[in-house]
Amino acid sequence: MNSTCDAYIIFGEDKIDDLSLQLQ
Prior knowledge:
0% strand, 88% helix, flat
């Protein structure tokens, strides 16, 4: 979860959706 939070800060909301799909 921490990595996701960091990614949220670094990449922003728009990128989180893509990252979430890739992580899954």
